[in-house]
Amino acid sequence: MQVISTSLHDVKLLEPRRFGDSRGWFAEVFNQTTFAAAGLPDNFVQDNQSFSGKGVLRGLHYQLGKPQGKLVRVLSGHIWDVAVDLRRDSPDFGKWAGFHLRPLNEAGEMELLWIPEGFAHGFLVLSETAEVLYKTTNPYYPQGERCILWDDPTLKIDWPLGELGGLEPSVSSKDAVGALLTEADLPPVG
Q1: At residue 132, what are phi and psi to the nearest 5 degrees?
Q2: Which of 3, 82, 164, 187 is the most buried (most CB within 10 A)?
């Protein structure tokens, strides 16, 4: 497995090795020993899967009290995945990075995205539909659920809305009333 650093400290792209022949291919997507040796978390407690249509924008979500690290994988379709650093003691606090994720990247490699605890996460579906699977380091904790507005003017996230062919993003009623970064409950320092 190749581990690739990104512009945000601690956010990583992972490329598991695929082994193939004329019948298809096989890949080991998660192995506790391999992840631990690479300095990645090796204890995930929950798997989540979503199916969404083109233009659906989910996020920017995070949890207080029981923060979730997320290992994101696209099973079908194409998304623009965004991570925002909410760690106030981080040199990247308030910065974001976006990633085009598909089942296989442009080089034909499988690609997963690791987003550690202390980050907000969201994505925009750019294909007709997309299925996203992600493992979390903590279970869903409704009392700690928080959301930053996807179009927060402080963050200035460059969502690829032009790729929607004139569609407006479809946001849940809960996400539509997310907080601004400057007013949000953020994870504690340290």
Answers
A1: -125, 135
A2: 82
Question: How many Cα neighbours within 13 Å face the side chain of 96?
Answer: 24
How many domains in the chain? 1
The whole domain housing 10 covers 2-183
Write down the pTM of the prediction: 0.95
**Residue for token pair 């190749």:** 2
Domain assignment of residue 189, yes or no? no
7 within domain boundaries? yes
Q: Spot the catalytic one: 9, 61, 100, 140.
A: 61
Give the angle subtended at the CA of 13 by the CAs of 38 and 61, to the nearest 5°: 110
Residue entry with tokens 């995205």: 113
pLDDT, tens digit only, all 190 positions of the chain:
999 999 999 999 999 999 999 999 999 999 999 999 999 999 999 999 999 999 999 999 999 999 999 999 999 999 999 999 999 999 999 999 999 999 999 888 999 999 999 999 999 999 999 999 999 999 999 999 999 999 999 999 999 999 999 999 999 999 999 999 999 999 988 7
61 is catalytic: yes
* Annotated catalytic residue, options 78, 134, 140, 141: 134
Nearest Cα to 113, choosing from 50, 20, 40?
40
Instruction: Reduce the DSSP state of residue 158 to 3 states and report it.
Output: coil
Q: Does residue 190 sit within a domain?
A: no
Question: Which CATH number fits the domain that encloses residue 169?
Answer: 2.60.120.10
* Domain annotation covers residue 39: yes
